[in-house]
UniProtKB/TrEMBL annotation:
Protein name as catalogued: AsnC family transcriptional regulator
Gene3D superfamilies in UniProt: GntR ligand-binding domain-like, Winged helix-like DNA-binding domain superfamily/Winged helix DNA-binding domain
Pfam families xref list: FCD (PF07729), GntR (PF00392)
Keyword Hydrolase among UniProt keywords: no
Keywords assigned by UniProt, alphabetized: DNA-binding, Transcription, Transcription regulation
InterPro entries recorded: GntR_C (IPR011711), TF_FadR/GntR_C (IPR008920), Tscrpt_reg_HTH_GntR (IPR000524), WH-like_DNA-bd_sf (IPR036388), WH_DNA-bd_sf (IPR036390)
Amino acid sequence: MSTKTASPLRETLEQEIVTGQLAPGTRLEEMGLAERFHVSRTPVREALNQLASIGLVEIRPRRGAVVAAIGLKQMMEMFEVMAELEGMCGQLAARRMSGDERKKLAACHLQGQPFSENEDHDGYYAANVCFHECIYQGSRNAYLADQTRALRNRLAPYRRLQLRQRQRLSESFQEHGKILDAITQGDEARAKQLLRDHVTVQSGSFTDFIATLPSELIRNSA
């Protein structure tokens, strides 16, 4: 019974962490969550352990659970891996996507245009997720898609902040357009490189991004 109760609780907390509603470093008190979700502390504890197993929550001895923060070195490493995984998805999508899937990708791309023009960061982020999800599915490699999605979700709070950099929405939208063209044309090498460049840690822009992060979002790297 506890597993069934913990599942929707975990899904809600996971979504709130991924969307930034629960920022890194936020304490997750069992009693407060039990009262909020009208459950006992057992399914709360189970949900927190499940979130800890995928890296979204950190269980600290005598301090309880907190939304996990990422060390700077670890963040750079994760972004590098993320770039490679996204590139692989793009390469396979360019080879394997059906005509209907490419139309859906184009629709997701166009969905982001008004949000980009109006500097609507939350709206653009949703369209951005739609665009990348289409590519994951179009790769026709479920394992690769799951691994890419898991890492993307782990970095989601930071990715959302990255989109708030000056002119990043318009730049991201333009990059999506080039990626769409490469996939539509079946250009595997170009799709792979464009997606790697789209996600990768590039020295100047990444340094600017790090400079904008509140200190509480980055734990000290040991």
